[in-house]
Amino acid sequence: MKNPIIKIFLFIILISHKIVVSQPDIPVEKWKGKSILLISPHPDDDHLSHGTLALLNTNGNKINILTLTTGNVGTKDLNISKSDLSKIRRGEQINAMKALGLSENQYINLGYDDGRLEFADKEELVGKIVYYIRKIRPDVLMTFDPGYNYQLWHKSDHRAAAYLSVDAVRAAEWHLMYEGQIIHDKLEAYAIPEFLFYGGNPSDKNTTVNIEMFVENKVLAGSKYISQWSSGWYKYLGSDISAYPKGEEERVFKRLRKKIKNLNGVSVEQFRYYKGIPDGVGQNSARFND
Length: 290
Description:
The protein has about 290 residues and is α/β, with parallel strands linked by helices. The protein is built from nine helices and eight strands.
């Protein structure tokens, strides 16, 4: 093919096709009646998706949040024990969920130690995630992005959660994997069809969700993580932010608002959407959806 104009034209068509197949058939803002499972390593990681979760809940989708660790290490307060911090962070996550319209009944915590997911028994951990995938049978999985065409760097637990989640998705669809769940728990093998990955490289994100109507939910939910995003990180004074130094509440809310991505004057959250078999999660979705 010698004509450079034709080459450019065909290239544009190819790129456009790849973009189209990477998008949900129905915009996320219009999803209704879906089952959503969000897997996060720590009790505050779901904040990356709080606006979208509030939107999805309002639209009548069923949401469950599966947290892998208790978050029992994340503090600089020398007077808090791991046991106490586990309880604090559980309460914070449940309160954050309530700000999104979710209840404690939609919350699952596997109870692993913060900062040590990579050293946990992988077969056991994957099996536990498989159990909830088969039990909940979600239409969409949300978790940290494991990477697109190459491994994405995350800090330890985030990296582990990304890969453990996808490994569990793959295992869940095979009836001879963790067959005890099928024989004794009366579950069935299940394949998750759609994925929304958060926390990935900005250039890999292909789906933008308008959260303009849910900014206040996102900010209020984020403000519940007092042990993480206030001076409570260094000296925890309880779950009531009014007990902290003067101006603390204003600073926390200002920080949370500043972190929200703004695109052309609209508050948004962005994800990498993928539809297809788990083997293709890190590849161009066009290869696996034909």
